[in-house]
Amino acid sequence: MSSSQPSVSIVVPVRNEADNIAPLIEEITAALDGRWVYEIIYVNDGSTDATGERLAAIMAQRDNLRQLRHAKSTGQSAAVRSGVRAAHGAIVATLDGDGQNNPAFLPDLIAAVEKGVNVGLAAGQRVGRKDTGFKKLQSRIANGVRGSILNDGTRDTGCGLKAFRRDVFLMMPYFDGLHRFLPALVRREGYEIAYVDVIDRPRHSGVSNYGFFDRLWIGIMDLAGVWWLIRRKKPTPEVTEVKA
Predict the structure, then answer these.
(1) DSSP for 129-193?
(2) What pTM was estimated for this model as a whole?
(3) Distance between CA atoms of 226 and 236, rounded to whole angstroms?
(4) 4-29, pLDDT tens digit by residue?
(5) Looking at the DSSP assignment, which residues form a beta bridge with residue 39?
(6) Taking a C-beta distance cutoff of 8 angstroms, is the pair 38, 3 a contact?
C-alpha cells in the first residue's frame, strides 16, 4: 500500500463482530483500491470476542489498516468520534461493521463530498431494507417525528453509510447519539447535504447490538436537544485579519 498521506479515512465502529471483520475489509479494499489513497480505521468498542485478534492478524498484512480500542463499550457515537479524531483524511466515510452496509456505495458517497459545492455530508438512504417489519416500523416512526421537528430533509438518518468533511464533523457539538442527527447539524453549520440511494442487505453473522427501548427515550431527549441547538444557532461571522 502507498505510504502517502491518505485523502480518505474509512471509519468502522464495531463491537463483537469477529466473523464480519475479514469479509468487510475485503469489500472495502475492492471498492477503493486504485481510486484514493485511503486508510481504514476500525474502532473496537470494548469487544469481548475475537474482534481485536482478527483485526490484528489483518493489520500484519495491510499497512493502511488501523485499530483503535475502547477499554469498555461507550456506544456507536463515541466510536465514530474516536475514529474521526484519529483520522488523517480530509474526507471521512463511515459504515456499520455488521456487513449490512455495502462498501460498493462508498465511492459514490466520497465523490459527492469531494466534488460537491458546499457539500458537508453525503448520506446514504436505504432502499430495499432487509430488517424485520418491526424494525422498519421503528425507523419509519422515528424518521417521521425527527423530520417534522427538525425539518432536515432526510428520510433515513439511521443508515451507517455516510461521508463528510472531517473539519465539519469536528466543529459540531458532541453528544451521545450524534450520528443519528448529522444532517440537521451539518445544515446548522451552513453546509449542504447530498443523498445517495444505497441497497441494504442482511447481516452476515452475529446479532444486533442495539435495541428499540435502548434508543427510544434517549432519542426523544436527543431530539429536543438538537432542536434547541438549531434554535440557538447564530450566523457565523465573516472574519478578516486587519494587518498594519
Answers:
(1) --S-HHHHHHHHHHHHHHHHHH----S----S-EEEEHHHHHHSPP-TTGGGSHHHHHHHTT-EE
(2) 0.82
(3) 18
(4) 899 999 999 999 999 999 999 999 99
(5) 9
(6) no
